[in-house]
Amino acid sequence: MQRTAGLWLLIGLAGYALLPWYMVAGGFWSFGWLSAMGGDARPALLWSAGGRGWLWLPLTGFAVAGASLMLARDQLAMARGLVSAGALGLALMAAQGLVILGNSTRLGLLEGATQPGMGAGALVVAAALLFVLTTGISGLGRGRGDAFITGMIGAIVALVGIFVFYPMSFILLRAFELKGGAGLGVTEFLPRFFAGEIWSPACLTGLGYCGAALNSLMLALATATGTTLMGLAFALIFTRTNFRAKRLLRVLTILPIITPPFVIGLVLILLFGRAGTITEFFAYAFGWEKTRWLYSFWGVWLAQMLSFTPIAFLVLIGVVEGVSPSMEEASQTLDADRWQTFRFISLPLMRPGLANAFLLGFIESLADFGNPLVLGGNFNVLSTEIYFAIVGTVADPAKAAILSLILLSLTLGAFLAQRKWLGRKNYATVTGKGDSGRNAALNDGLRWTCYAVALPWAAFTLVLYGLIFFGSFVKLWGYDHTLTFEHYTRAFGIVYRNGIHFTGAAWNSYFTTLTIAAIAAPLTAAVGLATAYLLVRQKFTGKDAFEFSTMLSFAIPGTVIGVAYVMAFNFPPIELTATGLILIIVFVFRNMPVGVRGGIAAMSQLDKSLDEASITLGANSATTLRRVILPLMGPAILAALTYSFVRAITSVSAVIFLVSARYNMATSFIVGRVENGEFGIAIAYATVLIVTMLAAILALQLIIGRRKLRRADRIEAH
Amino acid sequence: MKGSVRFENVTKKFGDVVALKPLSLDITPGTLVTLLGPSGCGKTTTLRLIAGLESASDGRILIGGEDVTHLSATYRKVSMVFQSYALFPHMTVMENVGYGLSVKGMSKAEVRDRAEAGLETVGLKGFGARLPSELSGGQQQRVAVARAIVLEPEVLLLDEPLSNLDAKLRRHVREEIRQIQQRLGLTAVYVTHDQEEAMAVSDRIIVMKNAEIAQEGTPFDLYDRPASAFIADFIGDANLIDVEITQSGEPTEIALLNRRLTLPLSSKATGLAKLVVRPHHIRLDRDAAADRLPAEITYAAWLGNSVQYTLTTPVGSIFAIGAPQPLPFRQGDTVHLGFGLEDVRLVPA
């Protein structure tokens, strides 16, 4: 404990005395600050000596820590000293940051004081204080006395606190803010929260348009029902029939993951829009009127069905496979026929899984931003309304905050319902024991129903994806179908003249996207897997709350988190807007829950006695993690890396608020083109992204996927 | 003293569940002590507390005279053999055995030498390059032992080390473990729920029940002088018959049914008690006698070298083991039971 704490004390002091305390122009890694050490890039030591006296505050933490290290008589006293030192230092540091915001101060303290956003020096000092605190906690005997474990918990709690809870608190504050800076209260909040324009049921009675909240809710219910049924049909075909092209069905499941948003909506427009191919055909052949039906509830619903059915399929494959064959065999030996077996045994056993798929579809639909943006027309939903409240002609952050709260309560409600009803209930009948036998086949009626529902849908989906590819090569869809490379050359043109010049309009955002995704992916995997390790392998007080808070960001729609980040990180103490860093951070914390889930699943299959053996053989937790656990977790690491990389490329909802001229992302570039009606270039770009992601997935498979131990699914200790 | 283990009122709670009531014990260096008991009795918790895999809720733990209550498992000089062996599947046998040495920072050559010596001790010389999955269960077990002993721990912990082996191999491996322990003079703490295994390997046995110690002593002590009905039944089979002590002291006089018996035992108080009669101490006879108990055979199982009988008697169901007879007793026969008064014991009711 003494050595670890001492080391962090030194690191903290070095950060305090040598690194620039505030954000520096040009970014930290340009090292321009080395030459400006006397100017704006001064370390805290110089600032506090020269006018900004409040920067002495963090130093008190170090002073207390140093005193406890040198003067404490026994371990316990030292540990207590370190805990109070870290806590005090962090509290003082946070206080000065939250009081002096850029050019103004709060609570009437330190009037006239100014300071920019915190930078590298502040980061190092804060980290050092945090780890002094956690090392002290380990010295109190928590976390089995392991400073590495308490440090890890502390780091994750701090990160989730700063990048999930801190920004979300701004939404709350904004929503309850009274006009004219008159403080907080519900007098304005309640009327706005329950306003007719949000909840209006006018469309149901045929008197106009419904409110956004009601629209969102109806859409989510419809999409969840549809995707669950469709997913079930696919899952039954996949697991309970002799259908030949099962591999092709499997391909369907990864398509939506690597599909940039808008693309489905775009292709639907090209087919069913007023000038769409199919619309034209019916108008020509049957004289049907060309309508704008696509730009309504039904269009968005269709796009969401296409986007989210594969997700339900993926969930339900596991559920359907999870029904133990021996139960079905037992039913059949009791003289039930196939239909009765399905109806009275298999289906009830799948019920929690079906509910799970339903809630997932519900949350995805509510959070969906791309499809309603492209197809919504007069059909307003919450996620797009939030966007327009921020970027529209009349920016209304308070309205955005209130809409965000509504959306958040819907998704959070579904998320909590899922945890409460399904989280602990386990109908899965897969046990560790070898359960031989085969799942019962479907009876004919059910089988043909599944075929009739699912196969045309699969064909439709595949045709759409074919059209994406085809559409990127035609000049102007619906009008001029000559084949051309024009869209590709405009987006991705390269000129060889005195070297290579990337002249295409899309190169800039393409490189930015790949760079940021490549940085975010390993970070996401690391944070996610570290959290999973703590959740599966360690016991500590407040573990349930810890798990809940790390999974929470799954339930926060991207639009909401985007708004929250804009509100929270636009000014000191943490000023990150218009940087690449904020994009990386938003990806890490939005995609982390998936890394956590995957890590938990993988780690639960590693026998716990493996770690314990390593620990009792004298290895510490860090060594155990590196030499025993990580080598056995190859596939989970791969999945987490792939997923977070791909999600960083395809995500749009949060990103669209956070991009800047310098750091533009592919998806927001595509949005721009769609808004300008340049569908060709948008589709061409999307095609390039899909190919890029496929290539990345394959490359990662090759690099990490090879290190498989053996074919057994469960890695047991021997 | 090096190799000793001492618990001073150690307790362990998981939330509201008490896994271990205040427990004190002393383990003498160089002995093999077994923690024996039914599942959930706290024996594994006790072992894990020694290892440092659980931290004590209260009390002090000393290993080799040093207070290790708050020391993490990494730094305790104990090593453990796990029920599932916990061999690292991605490392060879040699890497597994050398793991503890290499994380200590020993040089590669020394790690190899010591690991080889360890493998030789358990009779697996030349198996170093294999993966654990290429070994049989018994061999994996021995690798796990080698991995634990190359660290020269003060205390070797074994958590049900034989439970994944088949019955025949078990006897063989437990003899080996006992021999290695005695040869190296190790202190060993051995957890099992199998009383026969415990009797076979231990210097001392600590029987646990409901999160506390029920009785401790040498295997002979526990068998010959059970302190409670639980121990009498758990260590070797026993018939427990309700009796009343009519006169305490030595000898003791008891009332069984309508008869009075004088036993060559001492007892503390009069009142209700249970008479412990081992199954193989019961004699079956076709002829009635004044000191014999009439019984009907409800079930007879012939096992080759012995016959097991379940009998219905006026004092309840009785289990007896006898030698095969030339003229066998059959189910439904009425027989008359007797036992030697010096063979029985009394335990509190």
Automatic annotation (TrEMBL), chain A:
Compartments where located: Cell membrane
Keywords: Cell membrane, Membrane, Transmembrane, Transmembrane helix, Transport
One GO location term (cellular component): plasma membrane
InterPro entries associated with the record: MetI-like, MetI-like_sf
SUPFAM superfamilies xref list: MetI-like (SSF161098)
Residue ranges crossing the lipid bilayer per the database entry: 7-34, 54-72, 79-100, 120-140, 147-166, 217-239, 251-273, 293-320, 341-363, 400-417, 448-470, 510-536, 548-568, 574-593, 636-659, 679-704
First-listed, main subcellular location of the protein, grouped into a coarse class: membrane
Ranges where the ABC transmembrane type-1 domain occurs: 213-418, 510-700
Protein's membrane topology: Multi-pass membrane protein
Gene Ontology biological-process annotations: transmembrane transport
Domain of life, per lineage: Bacteria
Protein family according to the UniProt entry: Belongs to the binding-protein-dependent transport system permease family.
Name of the protein in its database record: Iron ABC transporter permease
Native source organism of the sequence: Pseudotabrizicola alkalilacus
From TrEMBL, chain B:
GO molecular function: ATP binding; ATP hydrolysis activity; transmembrane transporter activity
Protein name (record): ABC transporter ATP-binding protein
Superkingdom of the organism of origin: Bacteria
One Gene Ontology cellular component: ATP-binding cassette (ABC) transporter complex
SUPFAM superfamilies membership: MOP-like (SSF50331), P-loop containing nucleoside triphosphate hydrolases (SSF52540)
GO BP term, example: quaternary ammonium group transport
Organism of this sequence: Pseudotabrizicola alkalilacus
Pfam family, one: TOBE_2
InterPro entries xrefs: AAA+_ATPase, ABC_SmlMolc_Importer, ABC_transporter-like_ATP-bd, ABC_transporter-like_CS, Mo/tungstate-bd_C_term_dom, P-loop_NTPase, Transp-assoc_OB_typ2
ABC transporter domain ranges (all copies): 5-235
